[in-house]
Design goal:
There is one protein chain. This protein is mainly beta. It has two helices and eleven strands, in the order βββββαββαββββ. It has helices at 73-78, 101-112, and strands at residues 4-6, 13-15, 30-40, 58-67, 70-72, 87-91, 94-97, 116-121, 125-134, 143-155, 158-159. The strands form four sheets. A three-stranded antiparallel sheet has the order 2-1-11, with no helix packed on it. The chain has a three-stranded antiparallel sheet with strand order 4-9-8. Strands 5-7-6 form a three-stranded antiparallel sheet. The radius of gyration is 29 Å and the shape is rod-shaped.
Length: 160
Amino acid sequence: MSCLVLCPTCGGKMSSNARECPHCGETDFFEPEMGWFSEPCRYEDSPRHALGCEGKGFLCRTEIMESYGIISLRDLREMGVRDLSKYVCIREGLYLSCDNAALREKIARAAAQNDLYLKTYGRSQSELFLGKVRCPRCKGTGKVTVRKPTGNYIDIRKRI
C-alpha cells in the first residue's frame, strides 16, 4: 500500500511507490544501511616496524633472519644430532640452526623473554622477528571494529 512521502531533494509530495519525484526528477531515495563489524587488524608502520599487526595484536621491531633451518627436536634426534651447541631453542620443541654465537645468544634471550615471533610460510620457510610491541590500533586484541554497509537499504523519504 502506498502513502504520501516527501522528496528529500525538493520537499515535494510524492507517492512512496513512485520511482522518481514528479517535481525535480530525483531517483536516489535509498542509502545503504551501515553496521559495525569486527575484523582482523591490518595496521602497518613500515618505517618503524618490520612486521605489521596482521591480526596478532602486536608489531615486531626488527627482522632477525629469514630461515630454512627450523627443525623439531624429534627430527634432530632422527638425524642423529647429539650436539645442540649450533642450535638455539626458539620455542618448545623447535630449534634453529645458527653458526653465529652472538646471534644464537640474542635469539635465546628473546625467546626466553617471549619477545620473539616466528612467521612460517608452509613447512620449510620462515622468518624470525624480534621486539614485540602492542599494536596501537587494536590495543593488543588483534581485532578492530569497522563501519561497513550491511547489504540492506533504507528509504530516506519522510512520510507525511
